[in-house]
Each structure stands twice: as C-alpha cells, then as structure tokens.
Amino acid sequence: MDAARWQGIWQVFTETLVRQGLNLVLAVLILLVGWWVAGRARRAAERLFERWGVDVTVRPMMGSIVLWVFRIVTLVLVLSQFGVQTASIIAILGAAGLAIGLALQGTLQNIAAGIMIVILRPFRVGDYIDAEGTAGTVREIGLFMTELTMLDGVCLHVPNNKLWGSPIINYSANPTRRLDIEVGVHQHDDIGGAITALRTLLRDDPRVLDEPAPDVMVMRYAEGAIILNVRCWIATSEFWPVRFEMNRRIKEVVEQAGCSIPLPLRELRVVETARNAAAR
C-alpha cells in the first residue's frame, strides 16, 4: 500500500475521530445543561403551582413529572448528536420502556399508586395517617414514595403502592374526634355520684363540644369494679392535650366525689408443707 493511500486513510480516521470527539463533548454538555435545566424547571413549576394555589399535596408530584419530561428530552437530544434518527429514538424508547416496565413492575405500581393518591386524595400533606401499622405525619407525596414523620421525629419513606394497597386511617381528615376514656369505680361506691362529677368535669371544660353532647355511662362490670365510659367530642387538634389532661383530672374528680378507682391486686400465698416445716 503506497504512502498516498495511507495518508488518505489517516486523514479520514483523524477527521472521524475529531468529529465524534466533538459530538461526544457536545453530548456531555447537553446532558449537563439539560439536567441543570430540568432541576430549575422543577423548582420553577412548583413555585408556579404555589402561585396558582395548587394544593400542596399535588405540587411535588407535578414537579417530578416536569423534571422527568425535561430529562427525557435531554436524553433524546444527546442521542441525536450521534446521528440516531427520531424514529429510531422513539422505537428505542418504546422497546426500552417495555423492557423497563417488565423489569420494574413494582416501581410502575408505585407511580400509578402515587397518581391515584394525588387524584383521590385519601390524605394530604400535614395529615396524620396509619396504614396497617405504618403511621406518621405526611410530609411529601412523591412520584415513587411518600415521606412520613413518625411520632418520635424519625423520617419514614413508604412506597406508594404499600399505602394505596392498605386500609388508610386518616386521623386529621375530620375537624372533630370522639374521645373515649374508661375509668373503673369500686363496686361498693356511689356510682351515681361519680357519674355526676364526671359529667360536671366535661361540662366545665371549654374544649369539649356541646354537640354531640358529652356523656358518662356504665359500660360493663369487671372484677371488683364498675367500668364507666367518659365520652365527648373535641377538635382534632385538641385531642391529645385533652386526653392527657382528662386522664389526670378524672382521678381527682372521682376521689372528690367520695369514690375510689380500684387497682388490680395479686395476692401471693406460699404453702408450707410438713417436710419443709420439719427441715426448719
């Protein structure tokens, strides 16, 4: 092979190398800029949704959708730098989507569950929920997971599919809640006096709602005690403060009424046999 032919091959090789190198550099720049723009677009969309008054529960989900739309467009632009045609890109994305869908069925279920949660809204950001033992205050509903804050302040990330597939108890959905406290009164005490004193306690507390009317009733008979039920309706935000204070004040009120709260006692008897007595 003569020198002129080698020179021609080398020239084609260097031109191809330079062209593909420039394409690679440009593709990396497009990728970096596209990823940066996607993040900025997500934050801008969330601010826009906030300005429009969109519910705080929906904003993170919509922001995630905007983010991934920009990222997919960025990936398409990167592939086009290497000469991949749009039709080919669509075919590749379709095939990749099918493969990813089969491989990540659980992830897609989380996305679908997240969309259903946002649409039907069984809970919102700030609500305290319990889904078969998974309990906490909702901080954010994402595209894949929901973020909860437990009572001890620990952050808990729960897959959306787990929440959607479980019975959800929303303690914050209604403005009022019923408070039930059971208290035992000795069976030989004046039950009527205890009931009257407890009713007065409920009537004098301004946090107890008048409707539905509070009441104290006999629930059942236990060993050595009559169990009373102290029942009232209060605002949901006042539930735990009222419950803790009522537990403290009920004992005082019952004792002031001349009654006593029987506590469970266990009597232990040691039977001494004749052999043990002789050994002494």
List keywords for this structure.
single chain; 280 residues; alpha+beta; 5-stranded antiparallel beta sheet; 3-stranded antiparallel beta sheet; 8 helices; 53% helix
Question: What report would you give on this structure?
Answer:
The chain is an alpha+beta fold. It is 53% helix and 20% strand. The chain is built from eight helices and eight strands, in the order ααααββββαββαββαα. It has helices at 3-51, 59-80, 86-103, 105-120, 160-164, 191-204, 239-256, 274-279; strands at 128-131, 134-141, 145-149, 155-159, 168-170, 176-186, 215-222, 225-235. It has a five-stranded antiparallel β-sheet with strand order 4-3-2-1-5. A hairpin with a 2-residue loop joins β1 (128-131) and β2. α1 packs antiparallel against α2 (59-80) and α3 crosses α4 (105-120). The longest helix is centred in the first third of the chain and has 49 residues, at 3-51. The chain is elongated, with a radius of gyration of 35 Å. The protein starts with a helix and ends with a helix. The mean pLDDT is 83.
How would you concisely characterize the structure shown here?
The protein is α+β, with helices and mostly antiparallel strands and 280 residues long.
Shape: elongated
Radius of gyration: 35 Å
What is the helix/strand order?
HHHHEEEEHEEHEEHH
| Number of helices, where a helix is a run of at least 4 consecutive DSSP H or I residues | 8
Briefly note the structural class of the backbone: alpha+beta
Q: Unreliable segments (pLDDT under 50, ≥5 consecutive)?
A: none
Distance between the termini: 119 Å
Secondary structure: number of strands = 8
Averaged pLDDT: 83
Indicate the proportion of strand residues.
15-25%
Helix content: 40-55%
- Main β-sheet description: 5 strands, antiparallel
How do the strands line up in the largest sheet? 4-3-2-1-5
